[in-house]
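Internal ticket - ligand job 49, zinc ion:
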Amino acid sequence: MVYVCEKCKFVFERQGEVSNCPDCGSGHIRPADEAERQSYIAGKQQAKK
Ligand SMILES: [Zn+2]
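stdout (structure tokens):
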């Protein structure tokens, strides 16, 4: 599952429930939408190179 922080726009991946952003600690997180998920995956693949 990919999540987005509403406060700092940090995108991260976690298994199971998440209650706080790992970057800023905000509780305002939500599941990423399809476009955000795709760009997260694309960025991850680029980082591997
Ligand atoms: Zn955050």
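Auto-summary: The chain has a mean pLDDT of 94. Residues 30 and 40 are 14 Å apart (CA to CA).
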